[in-house]
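To whoever is on call:

I kicked off a structure prediction for a single chain this morning and the downstream step that reads the tokens threw a length-mismatch warning. I double-checked the sequence; it's 389 residues and nothing unusual in it as far as I can see. Pasting both halves so you can look.
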Amino acid sequence: MMKTLYKEQGAQFRIELLETPKMQEFIETHADALNSGFQQVKMSDAMRQRLQRSNYIFSGMKTFHELNEAFPSLIDENGNRKPFEQFLNDVRKIDSTYNRNYLRAEYNFCQASADMAAKWEQFMQDGDRYNLQYRTQRDEKVRPEHAALDRVTLPMSDPFWEEYYPPNGWNCRCTVVQVRKTKYPETPHDEAMALGAEATGKDTKGIFHFNPGIEQKTMPDYNPYTIKRCRDCDIAKGKISLVFVPENELCAACRIVRALANADAKQTRKYAKPLQGTTINTTKFPHPINISRASITEWTNQPNKYLQEKNKMLLRINEVFEDKECKYLGPADPPPGKEKERVVQHHIFSTKVRGEEQCIIVWEWDWGEYTLHSISDHPEKIRKHIKKK
């Protein structure tokens, strides 16, 4: 990441740097680290995708702050550009702060949020048939202010759970369970709210006043890398207007990160436009592979079980081909009904998306040109048509 930043020219940090493949790869790596905390947690696919999207946005905004903080280190006290080794040495402390000191607490919080979001999803199946009860771990590590909430019991529909559903801070281990209505008396609403306000009193900014199950996010919109106004911003609510004018660098960065997180066909085509007319050159294939407008359209329109990941791959397609997991499988006949005039044959490459095999398809034309076509999440169907040697 810092190598990419070092290549930047000019006196001001460019927000557009977040759109580069190297930065996207870094953001995805950070998000994947957070996602790994709830891989085994049972939840719906829709909930999992929304939580993963939340982690991507959080990771993107964190990356923006780290880059913005590191950028001034490019220049020495005389206004001259530092040698790379000196720059790298100067920013090691920044990198360590963001990716070692902060990451553990962030990982724990995202894991706790995902656990509680999955629980909320289960609670929704019963609604107010049961009450919900707040519980701490009841050990010496429990914060006194959280201990006061232990055994608070209220219906799921009570607004208390919108404000004080765990986690209620960094490294919070509190949880919530369903209990029979006849087993525990309900806590008066006003008493519960007062206890909740006391428990989160140190959170003067109100960052942790959110329910990850209701909002379907691992991190609230207002967090250490955003500002208070982000709570009510239309962009945070998914209303990204075409006429939106960013008020500041944070808003501009947020817009870019959220667009990349969506990774839908329209957004991906926009960001992939510079690829049109370029060529993929890889040692795994003896011919240059052209990227056309049709390549971008077909790739982004292709259905896929991992839609976002598939679309993001296009933005770093050269790196995908050079990855050690990408292997050339050989030429293949077009599947019946999929023939196209002047396409002589297909060429198939195997790659991995979330550890699962997918096949990249390259078309060979009768005039000797090779173009990127698409990607398929049904490798078993594609492999059937590979020509035997």
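Update from on-call: the warning came from a stale cache, not from the record. Cleared it. Sanity check on the structure: The longest strand covers residues 343-353.
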